[in-house]
Amino acid sequence: MNSEEAISQASSLGSLKKVMRTYDDDLSIIVNDDFHIDNETIQTTVGENIRTIYTDGLFQDDLASSVRFISDSRYSINVVKYAQLVSNVTDVYFYQFSYDGDLARQEKLKCVISLSYGQRYNYKNN
C-alpha cells in the first residue's frame, strides 16, 4: 500500500475542498455504517472525534489531512485489517511505500507524502 492512496483526490483542490466542506457540515456522513450507530447525535459526535484524529480544525482548511483521512477510510484501514486477518492462517508480507521523489509525477500538496497507487512502479522500474 502507498502512504497516500487518495492523493489523486487533490488533482482538483477546489473540488476536494468542496467535498471536505460537505463532510465538515455533516460529520455523521464520515462515520462508517459498520459502526452500527443509528442515533444522529452520536454519529455526529463520533464524526467529530474521527476528524480530530486527522486535524485540529476543519477538513476544508486542511486538505493534506483530508487526503490522509480519505486514504485511510477508503483504502488503508481495510488493507491493514485484511492483512491482519490473513496473517492468522498464513505468512503475510506487508509493505508501505512512502517515498516522495522526482518520479512521483504528482502535484505537491503541502504536508502530504504525495504518492498514490501505482506510482511505486515508477521507482521499481528505474
Taken as a percent bin, the fraction of beta residues is under 5%
Major sheet details: none
The succession of helices and strands, N to C, reads: HHHH
Rounded Rg: 16 Å
Number of domains: 1
Q: What class do helices, strands and sheet pairing give? A: mainly alpha
Helix content: 40-55%
Unreliable stretches (pLDDT < 50, length at least 5) are 103-108, 113-117
How many separate helices?
4
N- and C-termini, Cα separation? 19 Å
How many strand segments?
Answer: 0
Indicate the mean pLDDT. 79
Shape: flat
Explain this structure to me?
InterPro entries: AB_hydrolase_fold. This protein has 126 residues and is an all-alpha fold. It has one domain (7-124). Helix content is 45%, strand content 0%. The two termini are 19 Å apart.
Tell me briefly what this model is.
With 126 residues, the chain is an all-alpha fold. The protein has helices spanning 13-25, 40-54, 63-86, 120-124.
Keywords:
mainly alpha; 45% helix; 126 residues; 4 helices
SSE order and pairing:
Blueprint: H1 13-25, H2 40-54, H3 63-86, H4 120-124
